[in-house]
Amino acid sequence: MDLKLAALLFLPVALAAQTELDRSYQRMLDSRRQVMAYLERQADEITRQATDEIASPEKWERARPRRLEELRDMLGLLPWPERTPLNLQVTGVLDKGDYTVEKIAFESLPRVYVTANLYVPKKRAGRAPAIIYVCGHAVKPYGSKTHYQRHGISFARNGYVAMILDPIQIAETFALHHGVYNQEMEDWYARGYTPAGVEVWNAMRAIDYLETRTEVDASKIGITGRSGGAAMSWFTAAVDPRVKVASPVMGISTYAANVRDNTQRLHCDCMFPINTYLHDMLHQGALIAPRALRMMHGRQDRLFPIPGYEEFERRVGTLFQGYGKTGGFDNIVVDTGHQDSHYLREQAIRWFDRHLMGIPERRLDMDFSEAPELELAVFGGNPPSDARNFRVHEFFTTAGPPRRHASPAAWNARQSALLETLRAKVFRALPEREAAPKAVTRRQIAGFEEIEFESEPGIPIRALVSKPKELPGPAPAFLYVASDGEDEESLASLLGTVPGVRMVVFPRGVGAIPWDRRFYRDALRNAMHTGRTVDSMRVHDVLSAFDVLRGWPGVDGARILVSGKKVSGGLALYAALLEPRIHQVLLFHAPTTHVEGPNFLNVLRYTDLPEAAAALAPRRLSFYGYIPDAYAYTRQVYELLGKGDHVFLTMSHGSVLEGRYDHQFSSGR
After folding, report:
1. How many C-beta atoms lie closer than 10 Å to residue 214's C-beta?
2. Cα–chain-centroid distance for residue 305?
3. What percent of the chain has pLDDT above 90?
C-alpha cells in the first residue's frame, strides 16, 4: 500500500485516539479541581460548626466532655495506654554553676525510650514550678534537645525546673514523624496513627516523673514549644488537666484556612490528630480554656496562615472573655517567618511568671552559654539495642489479629459490633444517601452508554452502562469499580462475557489518566483533615453508582453484584458492608491487608480485610482465579455459620452473576 495512502487512512484513527486521550487528561484535571473545592467546602463547614460550638462557655461546656474524649480517641489515647514502669535512667549530671542538667531516659511504653535533659535551678524557695519544653524539628545527632537547650537554661536561671523532651523523630533512638508526608507510609491513616499521640503520651509520662521530684510543685506545671513542639503543647494541654499554663509558639490555625492554602504540604504528620470526629483547631484552644493560653506567631510564617490564627484569636479569645479570663489569653505576632527568637523565649517565661509564679513583671536573666551537644547526650551514641521506637506506629493503635469465635452467636455479636464501629469511626464522615442521583447520558463509546451523576454536590462521577438488547425480565447486574489506568476498550474486553446489565463506575480521580502522586498525597492529607480519605470518598461514589444502577431499566435490584480489582475490589467489599442490599461481591486479585489498601481512617484499629470480608456473611463472596491464603480466616467464619460454600473460587465472573457456583458446565456454553 502506498505510504501516503496508509497515512491518510490511519489519520482518523490517530486523531480519535488523541481526542480520547485529551478527554481523559481533561477529566483528570477537572477532578483535581472538583475534589479540592469539595474539601475546602468541608473544611469551611468544620470551622463554622466549631465557631458555633465554642460561642459561649454555656454552649461549650455542654460539648466539652464529648469533644475531650474524641480528641483522645483521635490521638490514639482512648483508653489511656497502661502507665507501665518508667524504668528511669540518669546517665549523668552536669553542674553549670547556678543550675544542673540531668541526662535522663525513661520508657513511656515498654522499650519505647524517651531521652530528655532536666534543668534544675540551684536557688529555690521551696518547690518550683515545672515546664515541659517540647522540641520542634531541629535535626541534631543527639536529639533536638541540644538545639533548644537555651530554653532550658533560661527557665532554670529564672527559677523553673524545665524538662526538654526529644521528639521521637529526632532523638537518640530512631522513629518517624513523616510517614505519610514523604515516606510512602499512607497506612498510618488506616492505622489511625499520628505521631502526635506518642508525643503527647511521652509528655504526660514526663509529667508523671516530674510529680515525683521533690524540687517540683506538681500543682504548677506549664508546657511550651515551637513548631512541632507547639502542636504537642496544644494537644497535651488539651487532654491533660495537670497542665495549668500553655504557651505554644508557631502555631495554630483553622482547617478552613489550612485546606484553602494547602499548608499540609509544609507540615509533618505530627501536627494533626486523625480527624475522625471533625474537630477544628478551635476545639483544642477551647479544651485548654479557661487555663492560661498564650499563642505566638510570625506574620511571614507560611505554615500558619494569618487568617487562620486571627480567626482562632477572635473565637477563642471571645470564649476566654466569657469565662471572665480576659487576661488568660493572648496572641503575640512578630514580623518574622517560622523561626525562634530571644524575644519569644522571653515572652514565654513572662507568661509563666504571671500565671504560675504570680509575678506580674521582673527583670529576667536571659543570658546563656550552650554546652557541646555530645555533653547533653543521654546515651552517648549507644542507645538501647532493644528499643522499639522505630516500630511504634505498628503497635500504638493497630489491633491484633482477629479472634476466633466459638459459636455462630459469638460471631454474630462481633459482626454487629464491627459494622457499627465501621459506620461510627471509619466512615463517619460519609454523607447520608437519600434519593438516587440523577444520571445524564453523555455519549456512546466502545459499546457502552457513558453517563454522569453527582455522588455529592460538585462531584460528578462518570460511569459506563451496557445491557443486552433483549431482556426476558428483570436481570441481574454487574457493578464493576474501575481502577487507575483502565480504559473503555480494556473494560469492554473484561466484561464482554458478563450477561445482564453491566455498569463500570470511575470513582473520583480514577481514570485512564490518574492523579499524579503529589496531588494524590495532597488530596489524601487534606481529606484526613475533614474526616475522610480518598478511598472512603470513593466508597461513597460506589454506593451512589449502586443507587443509580438499582433504578436502571431492566435491572433486578435484588441481584446486584459489585466487583473490582486489587484496591478497587476493597472498595467494592466495603460498599457491600455498608449497603446490605448488595447481593454479592467478586474480587479480582484481592489485597490481603489494609496496609496495601484500600486506605480508610482508623480501619486497622478495628479490623483488617480477612475479617471485614467475613463480615459480609452470609452473602456470597467470590474470588476470581485464586483465594489468597489470608482469607482462610474468612472461610472459617463462613463454615462456622454453615455457609462454607458461599466463599467461592470462580473462573467465570459471568456465571457467578447468573448464580452458578460450580464448574460443571461447558466453557462454550
Report:
1. 5
2. 21
3. 87
Determine the Cα–Cα distance for residues 113 and 413; give it in Å rounded to an integer: 39
Which cell goes with 369?
Answer: 552559654
pLDDT at 20: 75
Cell triple for residue 318? 471571645
Question: What are the pLDDT digits (tens) for 544-572?
Answer: 999 999 999 999 999 999 999 999 999 99
Length of the chain in terms of residues written: 669
Contact 388, 382 (CB under 8 A): no
145 Cβ contact partners less than 8 Å away, ≥ 6 residues apart? 115, 116, 117, 135, 152, 164, 165, 166, 376
What is each CA distance from 608 to 28, 188, 573, 617, in whole angstroms? 31, 14, 12, 15
Cα–Cα distance measured from residue 77 to residue 195, given in angstroms and rounded to the nearest whole number: 12
How many alpha carbons lie under 13 Å from residue 390 in its C-beta half-sphere? 8
d(CA 313, CA 237): 17
For β-strands 128-134 and 216-226, DSSP reports them as parallel
Answer whether 332's CB lies under 8 Å from 294's CB.
yes
**pLDDT-based confidence at residue 5 (cuts at 50, 70, 90):** low
Rounded to the nearest 5°, which phi and psi values hold at 623?
A: -120, 135
C-alpha cell at 181: 508526608
CA angle 37, 486, 465 (to 5 degrees): 85
Any idea what the Cα angle at residue 337 is, between residues 331 and 339, rounded to 5°? 85
Per-residue pLDDT at 650 exceeds 80: yes
CA dihedral 555, 559, 565, 568 (to 10 degrees): 80
* Residues 8, 634: Cα–Cα separation, whole Å: 57
Question: Which distant-in-sequence residues (6+ apart) come within 8 Å of 358 by Cβ?
Answer: none
**pLDDT tens across 132-179, in order?**
999 988 889 999 999 999 999 999 999 999 999 999 999 999 999 999
- Tell me whether residue 596 is exposed, middle or buried, using C-beta atoms within 10 angstroms of its C-beta: 0 to 12, 13 to 18, 19 or more: middle
Of the candidate CATH numbers 2.60.120.10, 3.40.1440.10, 3.40.50.300, 3.40.50.1820, the domain formed by 75-395 belongs to 3.40.50.1820
Among residues 173, 75, 197, the alpha carbon closest in space to that of 116 is found at 173
Q: Where are the domains of the chain?
A: 75-395, 414-657
What is the percentage of the chain residues whose pLDDT exceeds 70?
Answer: 97
Distance CA 155, CA 133 (A): 10
Amino acid code (one letter) for 62: R
User: CB-hemisphere CA count at 13 Å for 186?
Assistant: 20
Which DSSP helix (H) or strand (E) runs through 131?
Answer: strand 128-134
CATH of 414-657, one of 3.30.70.890, 3.40.640.10, 3.30.565.10, 3.40.50.1820: 3.40.50.1820
Task: Assign 22 a pLDDT band (cuts: 50, 70, 90).
Answer: confident
The angle subtended at Cα 617 by Cα 663 and Cα 473, nearest 5°, is: 60
Q: Tell me which residue of 238, 190, 232, 230 sits closest to 67, measured CA to CA.
A: 238
Q: Is 116 helix (H, G, I), strand (E, B) or coil?
A: strand
Find out whether the peptide bond into 618 is cis, omega within 30 degrees of 0. yes
- Would you tell me how many other CB atoms lie within 10 Å of the CB of residue 23? 15
Q: Which spans in 447-596 are helix H?
A: 488-495, 517-529, 534-550, 567-578
Question: Is the fold of 75-395 the same as that of 414-657?
Answer: yes
> CA–CA separation, 587 vs 458, rounded Å?
30
CA dist., res. 294 & res. 252, Å (int): 11
Nearest to 279 by CA among 54, 433, 56: 54
Whole-model pTM above 0.90? yes
